Amino acid sequence: MNNITPDTIRNWKETRRRISALTAYDFPTARLLDEAGIDLLLVGDSLGMKITQSVTIPTIGIGAGPDTSGQVLVCQDVLGLSYGFKPKFLRTYANIFETIRHAPTSTRANARAITCVALRRSSSTSFSSARWPLASS
To answer: CA 60, CA 119: separation in Å to the nearest integer?
Structure first.
């Protein structure tokens, strides 16, 4: 198993090396991509370890456990956009899902409050001048 680190990728990028990365869902595809000289092989959790052991190129796991050359965290998981299942290793740095979930309720409450204030202010003036200042000119 070839180990790969973020520094490896950073070095490749700094030297402007083109990086080829493809996904393999089965052994035949993994072996074909290995023979083709692909830089990185993306694998899922079901075959991550077996594919990693059968190829010579680094594998990057997406929820594939510690048996791959490296791991990828999905942006939605890190930001807390996912609902429900959370892997044990996941560190969530925000809970944007809850913010999004409560946004419509907050917006509705805010709109009602603004409407009430506007109605109180317009009760002392005529409807047309309160809503359309240019209508009275």
So the answer is: 59
Provide the token pair at 131: 């809503």
* Stretch (H or E) spanning 130: helix 127-131
Using only C-alpha atoms, what is the Rg of the chain?
A: 27
Model-wide pTM > 0.70: no
Q: Report which of 37, 43, 9, 48 is spatially closest to residue 23, judged by C-alpha positions.
A: 43
Q: Are 70 and 5 in contact (CB under 8 A)?
A: yes
pLDDT in tens, 90-99: 777 777 778 8
Give the phi and the psi of residue 22 in degrees, each rounded to 5: -135, 160
Type of residue numbered 63: G
- How far is CA 36 from each of CA 20, 30, 57, 81, rounded to the nearest angstrom? 11, 10, 10, 36
Rounded to whole angstroms, what are the CA distances from 21 to 6, 25, 67, 90?
Answer: 15, 13, 18, 23
